[in-house]
Amino acid sequence: MPAAQTIRNIAIIAHVDHGKTTLVDAMLRQSGTFRDNEKVAERVMDSNDLERERGITILSKNTAIHFEGGKINIVDTPGHADFGGEVERALKMVDGVMLLVDAAEGPLPQTRYVLSKALEAGLKPIVVINKIDRPDARSKEVLNEIYDLFIDLDAEESQLDFPVLYAVAKAGTATLDPDKPGVDLQPLFEAIVNTIPPATGDPDATLQILVTNLDYSDYLGRIAICRVFQGTLHTGDDVTISKRDGSLQKTRITKLFTFIGLKRTEIDETTMGDIVAVAGVEGITIGETITSVENPAPLPLIIIDEPTIAIQFSVNTSPFAGREGQFVTSRNLRERLEKELLINVSIRVEDTGSPDSFKVLGRGELQLAILIEMMRREGFELTAGRPEIVTKTVDGVLMEPVERLTIDVPEAYTGVVIEKLGPRKGEMTRMRNHGSGRVRMEFRVPSRGVIGLRSEMLTDTRGTIVMNSLFDGYMPYQGGIPQRPTGSMVADRQGLTTAYSLNGLQERGVLFVGPGVEVYEGMLIGEHSRDNDLDVNVVREKHMTNMRASTADDAVRLVPYKTLNLEQAIEFVADDEVVEITPKSLRLRKKVLQANRRPKQWEKNQ
Ligand SMILES: Nc1nc2c(ncn2[C@@H]2O[C@H](COP(=O)(O)OP(=O)(O)OP(=O)(O)O)[C@@H](O)[C@H]2O)c(=O)[nH]1
Ligand SMILES: [Mg+2]
Asked: What is the pLDDT of residues 378-401, one digit of tens each?
């Protein structure tokens, strides 16, 4: 049998947290990737710091296992909607997908999105209903919902006849029969081999290798992760890179690797259909083709969905700028963003009128927040503004992005949800009562209306809400949507905050700082409970002059202040405010720091 017959390339796709990375763990373990006594971290594929901290997958990653003499390349993808671009490009490497669906939650918006992309690409699916150990599992219903979803997405006849496995990824079991508990993942491995077509292609034809991902090693420099579509590549070969801009660039391949388990092994020659890592190709980027010098035959460029949200990244101009960060200039910022563009195909960067500001466009707030978080860890300082949506004009009509929003709440809160979505121009498209005391509602709502919604909803439903949203095309601009109904408390001078002054302010809203914090004029120290901004002196010391000396009723009792994380901060700031980000601090501030220069926005509301 030619070697090509034995390679299967598969991506594992699902909504966030449905268990993809956990399943990959189990597949690796059961395929004998690790030594018996080897200590392996849980969710080992989530290997970067931010992934481990947040417990989510951010970047698509490759691994591979051997099964019955063949090889299965597996791409683990992120489930969060903001990283949809990662999924889209992962699908270019594979011939089939494992669609994982939580046995209790059922298909959610991102399930729909990733499945639609897989079906569009004509990939063969395998359905895995995971977490059947959950006490609230409802596998049968969930399977029906999955069929409905396939039909709703116009799956072809041949894509409908997928195998269904019932799994407990955590325990490493899968079974074809829901009434017979699984013992291991053997049925899943068999389903892959029987369902997913082996990678094909002519190893003697003109070289065509598509770059679908990038990696970096200190030792080897940039590494391109690619799928071999046709031809054979050897170490030392002279090749042409067909660049994104259509130009051709000659280069020599210095090193070639194939994936196995968590390692990459060096090879001299590619196997037909394999996923390989190529080193030594300076400046290569995603979507480019490695092809022959004599007869260049580029593959179509990878086209992925457009960004829908934008955040202005600017140089840090606060009085504390440069105290903690190493990279603070506009040039630093520009170079870093340019570097990101090379490896992250789903973002875009646009110049603004000012050389100190860049408009960074992405798929969602989390995606951009993760970029900011990476930058601050690398030693950058910057400010980031409130996310804005990306509108476009079609046939003279201003269009704005819309989300498909799924909300799960206890019945008692349905009224609250509907009330909140009304002014945000949300239109309910579906409401289902599972009979479990919780209700699932679906809305179509302008993306603008979703910004900041989660934190408000969490408060309004006492943390019981589960919310998921997904980009769902464009609709004509819906007119005004009210923003944050509250103002800010703004420090009116520089200094150290005192418990005494904070104590006097805490009744007027929610504080963001405790005592002993260095603040500057124009920095936000809290949220005012009324709709106007309040300039406050937070550095005032108590004067021990008149009346009683300190007694029990003078003792300052500060309620705990609220610490906003990065996502909450960028959702919180109003149009005239920004978030200052440094490696150690996160501060909210007015764009115009000096109170007497600041336009008084609230005056018009009075
Ligand atoms: N009860 C139960 N929990 C599971 C099972 N599989 C995974 N989990 C849990 O589900 C959570 C999410 O698992 P992950 O493997 O990170 O999910 P994921 O799909 O990779 O998530 P993203 O990559 O962020 O989209 C973890 O807490 C797992 O322990 C299962 O079979 N049963
Ligand atoms: Mg994951």
From this structure: 999 999 999 999 999 999 999 999
Instruction: Indicate the pLDDT class of residue 600, thresholds 50, 70 and 90.
Output: low
Mutate to test the pocket of ligand 1, among 13, 20, 22 (most ligand atoms within 8 A of CB): 22
Residue 44, phi then psi, degrees to nearest 5 = -60, -25
Would you call 399 helix, strand, or coil by DSSP? strand
DSSP annotation string for 204-239: TS--EEEEEEEEEETTTEEEEEEEEEES--BTT-EE
Query: Which residue's CA lies nearest to atom 11 of ligand 1?
Result: 17
Q: Could you tell me if the CB of 20 is within 6 A of ligand 1? A: yes
Ligand nearest to the CA of 56: 1
The model's pLDDT over 111-135, given as tens digits with 9 standing for 90+, comes to 998 999 999 999 999 999 999 999 9
pLDDT in tens, 452-501: 788 788 878 888 888 888 888 899 998 888 778 889 999 999 999 999 99
The distance in angstroms from the start CA to the end CA of the chain is: 80
The enclosing H or E element of 143 equals helix 139-152
Nearest to 465 by CA among 419, 416, 511, 510: 416
Q: Is the CB of 18 under 6 A from ligand 1?
A: yes
- Cα separation of 224 and 230, whole Å? 17
Find the range with the poorest average confidence among 508-517, 540-549, 585-594: 540-549
Ligand 1 in reach of 169 Cβ (< 6 A): yes
9 lines ligand 1 (CB under 6 A): no
Give the number of the ligand closest to the Cα of residue 168: 1
Protein residue closest via CA to atom 29 of ligand 1: 170
Q: Considering only CA atoms, which of 472, 335, 441, 313 is closest in space to residue 381?
A: 313
Mutate to test the pocket of ligand 1, among 138, 170, 175, 185 (most ligand atoms within 8 A of CB): 170
Please work out whether the CB of residue 15 comes within 6 Å of at least one atom of ligand 1: no
Question: How many angstroms does the Cα of residue 492 sit away from the middle of ligand 2?
Answer: 45
| Strands laid side by side in the 208-217 sheet | 248-252, 238-242, 289-291, 208-217, 221-230, 275-279, 255-260, 263-267
Instruction: Determine whether the shortest distance from the Cβ of 85 to ligand 1 is under 6 A.
Output: no
Q: What is the mean pLDDT of the chain?
A: 89
